[in-house]
Design goal:
The structure holds two protein chains of two kinds. Chain A is an alpha+beta fold. Chain A is globular, with a radius of gyration of 17 Å. In chain A, about 25% of the residues lie in helices and about 25% in strands. Chain A has a four-stranded mixed β-sheet, with no helix packed on it. Chain A has four helices and seven strands. In chain A, a hairpin with a 3-residue loop joins strand 6 and strand 7. Chain A has one domain: Roll (SH3 type barrels), CATH 2.30.30.240. By secondary structure, chain B is mostly helical. Helices cover about 80% and strands about 0% of the residues of chain B. Chain B is globular and about 55 Å long. Chain B has one domain: Amino acid/polyamine transporter I (Up-down Bundle). The N and C termini of chain B lie far apart (about 50 Å). Classes of the chains: A alpha+beta, B mainly alpha. At the A-B interface, strand 2 and helix 4 of A face helix 4 and helix 13 of B.
Chain lengths: ~120, ~400
């Protein structure tokens, strides 16, 4: 893979799984520091939760309330995708994982199960 | 569909979809209070939306990214969150005013208070979104909205001094006794009405929904330049008929019901029927587009599946978001807060928020790695820098002008 800039070319880009389905955005990159070695990006992280700390308190509280009360998700674990799974980077970052297997669609699934599926003609 | 007919459809829908509640209210009030002296905002605002929409269409074609993708990639998560919050606020308020606009048109037709029409209007919008394709939403309401061309016919019939109209577009003559802060706040609201953010989110997402390719550069350019130019003629005529009917008689138009008065005065009850049909389609179309835009921004920000041509199972987050946005908007509309005042405030807020989307778009449109040969040319960049200055002044001035003008009232 060619050289690229982490912030310009990877951070906040869309992620697409091996089936070509959307699976969120690159929320964080985990950098590993080992003595005597150059720093290396080890994983891509999908984690809206960790980013909540960057929001003003009232907005973070609203987001947590939505997660818990609206979505019924009490603990959303961060999803880490090893860098080795990155296949290519263009308009989006292509990764060799299945979005459902890694749990990247839990928010959307929760919305479907709790609300959208119950509406008339939702399963058309 | 052939390229020519596709282009023609693009132009016609751009014209039909140009007018919404924002234009109906702000242009009518501007004509009544300031005669032709705010027509310059049409020139600035329409040129601005041309540059803006052309750029977002070009970026979508070339990079495959929507406006929201670009904002998040270029400004990062933190600033993009602020942009998302502002965009969502403006989008929801826009849904409120458009649904209220539908209800107010129905009030004119039926005599039944608009508040009774809010829920039916919301149900119709929700139903159309639930069952319709993107193409039907994009083209249907805009084609029906061409009825709003009745303002052009009325303007011709009322016979203003067209030389005066043209000259005031460049050299405005502010009526004596006008409050300068109120005049400038009205200008801000007009600019916000002409460059409403939901139109840009919708346009940018539409380019991806319709899978525009390199062959669509010409569609993008012609739709934005020709379509918006003809659209601007409608809003000029809206201001003109209001000035000819209200300003010259010293009447300040503050009610929605007064908007079609010039139409009735010049074209009779038949004109009113055409206005009602076109106005209902235009506000309904804008309600559909602004509701979709609220879902586009949120779904694209989080990287969810999105698209009006997906069924609910394929894009549950997108569907849930537009339904919630619509529900919240209906609840706000039911509070009975004056829809005309809310329209003025919403368009001013829209103008205030524009740099949040314009700056990242401008940066990406000049990025060789994203855009290749389709990046901005010198002329476009000069226009962009001009609008960036205008938008920055607007953003800085909006709140002080709001305070100084006593909430826009003067």
């Amino acid at each position: 893979m060619a050289d690229f800039y982490l912030f310009r070319d990877v951070m906040d880009k869309g992620l697409v799984d091996r089936n070509g389905d959307k699976m969120g955005k690159v929320d964080e990159l985990l950098l590993e520091l080992r003595p005597g070695e150059l720093p290396a990006v080890r994983t891509i992280v999908l984690d809206h939760g960790s980013l909540l700390v960057l929001l003003p308190t009232f907005l973070a509280n609203i987001c947590r309330w939505i997660e818990e009360r609206i979505l019924g998700l009490t603990e959303i674990e961060p999803i880490e995708i090893p860098w080795e799974r990155v296949e290519s980077i263009d308009v989006v970052v292509h990764v060799d994982v299945d979005r459902q297997q890694v749990g990247a669609t839990q928010t959307e699934e929760a919305l479907w199960e709790r609300y959208v599926s119950k509406l008339p003609w939702a399963r058309r | 569909m052939g390229r020519i007919s596709s282009l023609a459809l693009g132009i016609v829908t751009a014209v039909g979809g140009f007018v919404d509640m924002g234009e109906l209210v702000t242009c009518s009030q501007a004509g009544a209070q300031y005669q032709f002296s705010l027509l310059w905002t049409v020139v600035v605002g329409v040129l601005g939306i041309m540059v803006y929409a052309d750029m977002s269409g070009r970026v979508a074609i070339t990079s495959g990214r929507t406006l929201v993708d670009i904002i998040r990639e270029r400004l990062g998560w933190r600033i993009a969150t602020i942009s998302l919050v502002v965009a969502t606020l403006v989008n929801v308020l826009t849904i409120v005013i458009e649904i209220s606009g539908m209800a107010l048109v129905l009030q004119i037709v039926t005599g039944l208070s608009y508040i009774w029409w809010i829920v039916p209007a919301g149900i119709v919008i929700g139903g159309v979104l639930w069952f319709s394709s993107f193409k039907l939403i994009e083209n249907g309401a805009s084609l029906l909205g061409l009825g709003i061309l009745v303002f052009v016919v009325a303007a011709i019939k009322l016979g203003p001094s067209w030389g005066n109209v043209a000259s005031q577009m460049i050299l405005p003559n502010i009526p004596s006794g006008s409050s300068l802060p109120a005049y400038l706040f009205a200008a801000v609201s007009l600019l916000g009405a002409f460059m409403t953010p939901y139109e840009l989110y919708f346009y940018s997402s539409g380019a991806i929904e319709e899978r525009w390719t390199g062959n669509d550069f010409i569609t993008n350019r012609v739709t934005t330049v020709v379509g918006f130019t003809f659209g601007s003629l409608i809003v000029i005529c809206m201001m003109v008929v209001s000035a000819q009917t209200f300003f010259i008689h010293g009447v300040k138009s503050q009610l929605f019901a007064s908007i079609p008065v010039p139409i009735v005065a010049s074209l009779g009850i038949g004109g009113l029927a055409v206005f009602a049909f076109g106005g209902l389609a235009d506000t309904g179309g804008a309600a559909l587009e602004s509701t979709l835009s609220s879902a586009y921004t949120i779904a694209q920000f989080f990287g969810w599946d999105w698209g009006q041509d997906h069924n609910p199972r394929q894009a549950p987050g997108f569907v849930f978001t537009y339904l919630v946005a619509l529900l919240v908007a209906v609840i706000i509309a039911l509070t009975g807060f004056d829809p005309v005042k809310l329209t003025i405030y919403t368009t001013a807020l829209a103008a205030f928020s524009l740099p949040f989307t314009f700056i990242p778009l401008f940066i990406v449109a000049n990025d060789r790695t994203y855009m290749g040969d389709a990046r901005n040319g010198t002329l476009t960049n000069i226009a962009c820098i001009f609008f960036l200055i205008v938008l920055s002044i607007v953003t800085i001035a909006t709140i002080p002008l709001f305070i100084l003008s006593g909430g826009g009232g003067g």
